[in-house]
Amino acid sequence: QGNILRAQGKDWHPNCFKCTQCAIPLKPDNFYEKNGKPYCEDDYHKLFSPKCGGCLFPITDGQIVNAMGKPWHPLCFKCTECAIPLTPPHFREKNGKPYCERDYNRLFAPPCHGCSLPITDPSTMVKAMGKNWHPQCFHCYECHRPLTPSNFMEKNGKPYCEDDYHKLFSPKCSECLLPIRGTPLVAMGRQWHPNCFKCYQCGIPLSPNNFKEKDGKPYCNKHFQEMFLPKCYGCKLPIADKVLTALGHNWHPDCFCCAVCHKPLGSEGYREKDGLPYCDFDYHALFSPKCGACQAPIREVCVH
Ligand SMILES: [Zn+2]
Ligand SMILES: [Zn+2]
Ligand SMILES: [Zn+2]
Ligand SMILES: [Zn+2]
Ligand SMILES: [Zn+2]
Ligand SMILES: [Zn+2]
Ligand SMILES: [Zn+2]
Ligand SMILES: [Zn+2]
């Protein structure tokens, strides 16, 4: 009979073969089936097809882009900013929205303090001096060797390797002219490596509180005395304090004394005989004529 409809291997009243969801009558050559039940195309997709993460409509043709944990119409998976279609994995995500690389970087990537370009891979970003850097952009301002945030020196907002920092900014040693990395020793109005402040003659290290200076060079006390102090003609030792000049030589005041009684003589009022100094008494006792009566020297006679 013309009133019998055959579908799903069964016979139906034409009015009874209808969409399980909306009850619209179905044609046996145009329906969808799920779990043995017939559906119209619309409802079948509404109920059972994956929904697009962009437009939220069902994806009916099986053309699915899977991204960010959701299915998408290929044309719906596009940059939130410029609407260019995106192809996973070539896209960036921010707050659950997809972006093309260019817009993501423009909008969200922090700029590098070195080159001003966006830092597109946050996992490699270097944070130093309160700024963000590409790892290759955080380098010594002088020699361009790469630096790490835990090992660099800063000057005027610029990073330096330790070598260059000291070369450029540390005080230079007055002796070896190399940078002084630690605390400089200050002496003679100049700065020194503690080991470089030494006796110019013997090389012994000197204390800034105990040294002698001559012609801009430091000396230990011993060598300063040996090299620069006048020597006593009597004891041959250096004269640090008062110099007595007599008989054409320098003397310790205590060393210029009578050749006989060793009493210190002073620079005036001594007598000389054959290059030796004498006190007045011994001079006359030795060299003046003696009185025939009393045997005492006759002092008034001039020996010269
Ligand atoms: Zn869509
Ligand atoms: Zn875009
Ligand atoms: Zn950079
Ligand atoms: Zn450097
Ligand atoms: Zn030095
Ligand atoms: Zn010395
Ligand atoms: Zn002396
Ligand atoms: Zn004497």
UniProtKB/TrEMBL annotation:
The keyword Zinc applies. It is found in: Cell junction; Cytoplasm, Myofibril, Sarcomere, M line. InterPro entries: PDZ-LIM_domain, Znf_LIM. GO terms for molecular function: actin binding; metal ion binding; muscle alpha-actinin binding. CDD domains: LIM. GO terms for biological process: actin cytoskeleton organization; muscle structure development. GO terms for cellular component: adherens junction; filamentous actin; M band; stress fiber; striated muscle dense body. This is LIM zinc-binding domain-containing protein.
